[in-house]
Amino acid sequence: MAEVAVMLGLTLGGAYELVRDGTIPALKLGGRWVIPKKRFHAWLVGFQEEASS
Predict the structure, then answer these.
(1) Radius of gyration of the chain from Cα atoms?
(2) Cβ-contact 35, 24 below 8 angstroms
(3) Largest CA distance in the chain
(4) What pLDDT digit, counting tens, does each position of 9-18 carry?
(5) The 3-state secondary structure of 1-53, one letter per residue
(6) What's residue 49's pLDDT?
(7) How far is CA 44 from CA 7, 11, 30, 33, in A?
């Protein structure tokens, strides 16, 4: 999660907030959030394309 926060320029709390509200694709496994790399990168590409439109 910390790596994603750094990549997006967010605080760790901000990254968790976006995961909890479904903005960042993630799965909750047990007590931890897991962000699948392929889904995250696909989301990021789509987000960048949206921002440039």
Answers:
(1) 11
(2) yes
(3) 38
(4) 999 999 999 9
(5) CHHHHHHHCCCHHHHHHHHHCCCCCCEEECCEEECCHHHHHHHHHHHHHHHHC
(6) 75
(7) 10, 17, 25, 18
Q: Which are the contacts of 10, defined by CB distance < 8 A and separation ≥ 6?
A: 4, 18
Predicted local distance difference test score (pLDDT) of residue 47: 75
- Tokens 């989301």 belong to 43
In the chain, the percentage of residues whose pLDDT exceeds 70 is 100
Tally of residues, the chain: 53
Tokens standing for 10? 């967010």
